[in-house]
Specification:
- A hairpin with a 4-residue loop joins β10 and β11.
- α1 runs antiparallel to α2 and α3 runs antiparallel to α4.
- This protein folds into two domains: 155 residues, BirA Bifunctional Protein, domain 2; 264 residues, no CATH class.
- The protein contains twelve helices and eleven strands.
- The strands form three sheets. The protein has a five-stranded antiparallel sheet with strand order 1-3-5-4-2, with helices on both faces.
- The chain is an alpha+beta fold and 421 residues long.
- It is globular, with a radius of gyration of 22 Å.
Length: 421
Amino acid sequence: MVAKINQGGNLYGALSYNQEKVNEGLGKVLATNLVIEPTDGAFNVASCMQDFERFMPSHIRTSKPIIHISLNPHPDDKLTDQQLADIGREYMEQFGYGGQPYMIFKHEDIGREHIHIVSTRVRMDGSIISDSKNYERSRKITDSLEQKYSLHSKEKNQGETWQLTPIDVSKGNLKKQIANVIKPLSEMYSFQTLGEYRALLSLYNIGVEEIKGENKGKAYRGLVYSALDSDGNRVGTPLKSSLFGKEHGLDRLEKRFEKSKETIKVNGIAKQTRATVSAFFASTRTESEFRAALREKGIDLVLRLGDEGRIYGATFIDHNQRVVLNGSRLGKEFSANVLNERFADNSPREDLQTPKPSIATNQSAEPTTNKHPQPQSAHSETNNPVGSLFSVFTPEVEGTDNKQPTLKRKRKKKRRYGRQI
């Protein structure tokens, strides 16, 4: 079972996110603590907020008094609603939130059952529940719950099992296929730049680019998503982020970067990924051996290659930790120059491409075409307006400027994204 912990300042946003799932028939309220359950069973955000606020002091000393936790059992774990509710309660009790108001929601929106818990970090006396070593404490709790309820261990390549279906342009209906991937990925993973987000999506044959331009004298910037073929080339018509809902636009995605940065720092996630990567980097001789060893532990390596096949960037995607990290974040020993030197004598990378991860789903077939022009880069001008750009997960994140440079596409040789083994 994997736990994902987010802290923020917007109680309404956290409750609204979960209530929307309930309203759409993709979720339900499983249990509450210190929140009055309506006689007709119909919860609403306004009344729930009143219950939460009754236990909040008039003055608080933190800008992030709300905690939003998702607990994700293995897909093979078949649990009843009562068991899920019990797991949620026991987790909160052991995590130090047993005396706080909280709500436990069940979600069924990404092909598997999991729960979300919304609570407050501030006690009635104004003291704050410590978030020190949150990740370590949470992991011990989930380990004990796995044993108690005979659940699959997260160590058994849970990330690999949860991989979604890569885009297949031959099946058509690209909008639906892309939506089925970007929505759960944006909720489940932490990434700090557009480049890291792009690397994650590339595993599923999806590209994303920032666009800037001017329309009728008004400057705009936004995102477009595209389907990719097996060589990483864009095919079909690029789709504006607004087509997938306000939560997948650039403005809120940038806020997601800042939120992820804090989560990774507070929980010490990068240290654990670095330890795994370092161990295999030292014990393997070739690039293919390195990749294979990482994949055994649920970590994908995405390389960015130049004209001559030279590495100019590397990204590690840890599916167990649900985190995406550029090589430079793990240490100088994983920089592009070091990787080039280390694997200089390897066999040509043209032989290293393999299929993307796949789990069968049913998609309606519609014809596609690759005759449409590609979207312009982030530094180009275009007259295609980009629509509403809002939050990725909940409205409880804070903004930052995205300083990640947009990668330039080279014409002499198409760059290939995705896993290359």
